[in-house]
Amino acid sequence: MLTAPERPRLTSTSGARAQRPRGATGPNQSARIAGDAAATGALLLLTLVSAWGMFRVFAGNRWIAPVVVTALVVHAVSWGARQLRIPASVAVVIGVAAVALTSVWTLIGSTTTYGIPTGSTVSTAFHALRNAYRDIPNVVSPVQGTTGFVLAAALGTGLVALFGDWLAFRVRSALWGLVPAFVLFMTCCVVGYGPGRQWAVISEAGALLAFVLLHRSSSAGAGVPWLGGIATGAARWALPSGALVAALTMLIVVLVAPVSEGVEGSGLLGWRSGAGGGGGPRQVANPIVDLRTRLVELSNVGVFTVRSQVPSYWRLTSLDTFTGEAWVATNSYRGFGSRLPGVAGVPTGTRTVQEQFHVQGLESVWLPAAFTPVSISGVRGVGYDPTSSSLITSHKTSDGLNYVVTSYQYLSTLDPAQLKAAPPLHADASVAHYMSLPGNVPQSVYALARQITAGKESEYDKALALQDFFLGPSFQYSLNPPFDGYGLEALANFLFDTRTGYCQQFAGAYAVLARAIGLPTRLAVGFTPGTVQANGVYQVLDADAHTWPEVYFGPKIGWVPFEPTKSFSDPTAQGYAPPLPGSGGSTGPISEASPAAPKRSTETTVGGGTTRSSPTTTAVSGSHPGGGSTISGGWAATLVVLGLIVGWTAGNIGLRRLRWRIRRWRDGGKPAPRVLSHWSEVSEMLSWWGVSRAAAETNAEFARRAGRSLSSQLREPSPWVAFGVNRMASLATEAAFAPSVHTGAAHEAELVAQEIRQRLTRSASGRRLIMWALIQRPGRSPAL
Prior knowledge:
The protein is built from 21 helices and 22 strands. By secondary structure, the chain is of the alpha+beta class. Strands 11-14-9-4-19-18 form a six-stranded antiparallel β-sheet, with no helix packed on it. Strands 5-17-20-21 form a four-stranded antiparallel β-sheet. Strands 3-22-8 form a three-stranded mixed β-sheet.
């Protein structure tokens, strides 16, 4: 501990305005603006490169424009605020407003009035984000680009851009400024799916290096203290710092990637739960959630085309388990040659048909096929599940695939007599799974099922009675039902209250009522035939998405589709089911967007009063290659972020100590450089306390201002710190300009600097200590 130091000795450079070292000039305004713009552009590039990882998170390209535009606008607004010298606190508020407005304009702009958000805008955004938040724990990548998820992505990217800019140019820390973008990059790596990992890492490392280089270049000479006649130029700091950042990025990839086993160089940056090689579980998007998105948004974009001899409902898969919250499936897929394994026998005389599929924009892992596929050709990496009669690709999506499916066309050969002759099935191990219901299904549901089927003797008559019940006049079709959901509450509201819904409510309620009376059922998810073109090809759109129940009539007959949704008619069901009321027995193209179904704006996908609570994933397993990464594995992202924070803190403190030691070693024991080195450390400590040196200030001016500021901030006011800072400034000025400096001056500077560090550390609050640990902040001029 030192006693109060003597007052600074006045030298030839004390008291009066000190002369700037030779070769040091004030920053040129135009050069400063150009340098700041270049560094901002580099940070924008880093943000965009980091956000580009979302191509591994989202299916489709709907997210690109909102995310890119939001990043551009936020960085431009932040740069403009600095040029206009707007205070940091006000600039942050402006930046947050820019994030919110840009995200809204690019996604739900139709809800605004001349660009001004309204109550409808707030309500739409709130409901979209709320639904996305509910889906996050279970949704898998690649996720559908719903309004909620894309809005969240745009808002998140905007905040990354805003706080990255604040840390880089307000706090003036290059290394800390890149952290938000790097965390975004790591998050996309953890939850993302698909190839391109290596190029993503290389691009990220290059963007990090470019940003550090340009940031250091723009900062050189704009407030970095001059140490004697030596300028801390850009190349001196930029190259080592940028190389260190790039090396750390590569190191993270090397160390983190082998953490877990998966496909194509597994790990948190690759795929988890691979279902590849030796098999294993794979979480994929629940198709019934995708169905709702397609129906409500009513996109007229083509999803696939089919050249077929006959129209059909094109199946994706089936869901066999009702949890009380949602219909889900746990299927087992395996590879095959060309002919599909485990295809059940079909009645004599059944004909085979071929369908040529071209998938345009399905954005799903399933491959559409007609009922009862037998073989598939023209595509690789496909798995098949005989239980659900569905095909799945090992790729990110089936988009772009061309293949031919051969199917049995036996449904039209069935007749009511055959179905009435089917015996009741007992709930043995083979079918019990398809009859089970959760224990909290209301007794009123069982009572309604018994009431509808009272007096019906055969299983077929019961199934038909349930279908007729939903086709009756008391039920109405609407894509905007008062209650929209999957759970028991939505089911009860549909059956006993509103009796209004779309195919999901009709099919789900039918399947539950059928199970309540012992009929084995499952939900099929797919598309209606679509619209036949002049060349005989069926064009299937998003609006043709559909779901329907299937009832099992034993091994001799198998699964049989029914159609309880009003105004719909499966063209393959005409052999055993009577024409539906209102359909006229038509076998033409039917879609959920038919005139009987009122259309709903794509920008109001979630209305007030609706409910939605459902897991949005389903599990599959098998030996086919592939696999997805679930966002429910977000705990891994949290661990990565925490690890980065802990590692950054330890590295930050260690690098600061190392930098000081290297600086002293570089001084070579010479008194003048040693004094200037200690003055630089003191300047860094003062910057930590919010007193950064301006470019035009002399050492003495900076010391006087710092002393006044510290006197009002220290918890234990003492004149010592102000005297110590002034003494250090005097010693530094003498070391910069005097012909020679005595060794005693270097020793005195070391003792004074040590005392200042100790006193400032003791007086620091917990928040200030955290900032010291986290942020590298050499003494520089305050950001504009």
